[in-house]
Design a protein that fits this description.
434 residues; alpha+beta; Rossmann fold; Dna Ligase, domain 1; D-amino Acid Aminotransferase, Chain A, domain 1; four-stranded parallel β-sheet; 12 helices; 27% strand; globular; disordered C terminus
Length: 434
């Protein structure tokens, strides 16, 4: 059997789950990563170093590698490898999403343009340079609005503004994030721009799906019971199955399928975030990859099959007995970071494990490391998983487990800076931008 090329960064949460799934399926794996793998010399053909930030060059590297070590499928574990996976699959003539479709999904402004042209409900939006005159920018937006980078995920850099003062502060804060060397390198030209969208009220959900020949199969629909109204959009609890009425769930699936088709996505996993209100579902984000972090551990299919195994089976063309999610309700809590600083101690882990219906707690930031909350941060303190007969019990267990945890964090020292002179931004009045 030809090898599976699994693309990931060395900091990926997802590596273990995909490698375990490949082992269960008996698939030989090549790990394509941004840094050389330990013991790579002892296992020729088992790893490949590629620069995920330069996909054209990395795709050529993969094509040369495949001449000696044939590859049967290319899968990206995270966002960072999605474009390269599409490019490499095209070069190797493997089943894949079109490169343009993946690029559009990875560029939030491009996605908004396509959805607007397709007539799919979408918030008003406008793109700004990070060097934009803020007085001019503030006069061009409709309030309340949401400012966001064009390429970051997991709500990083996403900030709501309800007035002009908040808009200016949020804009400057995102600019500071985008100018960090590691972020600027990741985004390239996209790090020079900020997207501003009209705020869409409503309940938020996450859809996990699998595309095959352009047809969407819904694998799970998660409710997000905590309100996500800003100013930051830190996700916490996901619970499935959804408690929304069945017609609403069907509308969410239909909207996701339309968005995927409009972008041109055809094959592989999709993770979509939507808002639902009286006007129906609104697409916030759609990504050609599976759910992030360790959240996939909340999902099981058929006789205990993992989400990663479903994805790999699809990628290499293996039959799948069942795509049906288990009958039990399940959920995950992404443990938020309460303040910036250094993590000194975690209390209450044993108490969490004794909460009924809690299956597991995984702490992912070691004691002694720096912790950074959203909107600048890119990590959670950990993940809590629960299973029960009903979504209500799952949600209750996750909340009780989190209540029993205590994180001792030494606050970060902020160097004193003189306050900048206040500028008076006079705004003639908001207007809807499109």
């Amino acid at each position: 059997m030809n090898r599976l090329l699994l693309l990931m960064t060395t900091t990926s949460y997802r590596a273990g789950a995909f490698l375990e799934a490949a082992e269960r399926l008996g698939l030989p794996v090549v790990v394509g990563s941004d840094r050389p793998q330990v013991l790579s010399a002892a296992k020729p053909g088992g790893s490949l170093t590629v620069d995920l930030l330069v996909p054209q060059q990395a795709s050529r590297t993969i094509a040369e590698f495949a001449k000696q070590y044939p590859i049967g499928a290319v899968v990206a574990a995270d966002d960072d490898g999605a474009i390269l996976a599409a490019m490499a699959s095209a070069a190797l003539q493997l089943r894949h999403n079109p490169v343009d479709a993946v690029s559009a999904a990875r560029n939030k402004h491009r996605m908004r343009e396509i959805l607007a042209r397709s007539g799919i409900p979408s918030p008003g939006f406008e793109r700004f340079s990070i060097d934009e005159d803020l007085g001019t920018a503030a006069r061009r937006v409709s309030l309340p609005c949401v400012l966001k980078p064009l390429f970051l995920s997991a709500s990083r850099g996403v900030i709501r503004a309800d007035d002009t003062v908040q808009f200016v502060a949020a804009f400057r804060r995102i600019v500071a994030l985008l100018r960090r060397p590691e972020v600027a390198a990741q985004g390239g030209p996209l790090a020079q721009q900020i997207l501003v969208e009209t705020f869409i009220p409503g309940a938020e959900v996450a859809l996990e799906g699998l595309l095959s020949g352009g047809n969407l199969r819904v694998l799970a629909l998660f409710d997000k019971p905590d309100p996500l109204d800003g100013p930051f959009f830190e996700e916490t609890i996901y619970v499935t199955p959804s408690r929304l009425p069945h017609p609403v769930q069907e509308a969410i699936a239909e909207c996701t399928a339309k968005v995927a088709a409009a972008l041109g996505l055809t094959d592989g996993p999709v993770h979509a975030e939507l808002r639902v209100n009286d006007q129906g579902p609104w697409m916030l984000e759609i990504a050609p990859r599976s759910i992030g972090g360790l959240c996939s551990r909340a999902l099981r299919f058929g006789a205990g099959v993992s989400l990663e195994e479903l994805i790999l089976r699809h990628a290499v063309g293996l039959e799948t007995e069942s795509f049906e999610r288990e009958r039990q309700a399940s959920g995950v809590m992404m443990i938020p970071i309460p303040q910036a600083g250094t993590l000194q101690e975690v209390l209450g882990k044993e108490e969490v494990e004794s909460v009924p219906w809690i299956e597991e707690i995984r702490l992912t930031i070691p004691v002694g490391q720096e912790v950074v909350p959203l909107p600048e941060g890119a990590r959670y303190l950990g993940f809590i998983f629960a299973r029960a007969e009903t979504p209500e019990r799952v949600e209750s267990a996750l909340r009780e487990a989190h209540r029993r945890l205590k994180f001792i964090i030494t606050p970060a020292r902020v160097p004193w800076r003189p306050k900048p002179a206040r500028r008076d931004f006079r705004v003639a009045g908001p207007r809807v931008s499109d």
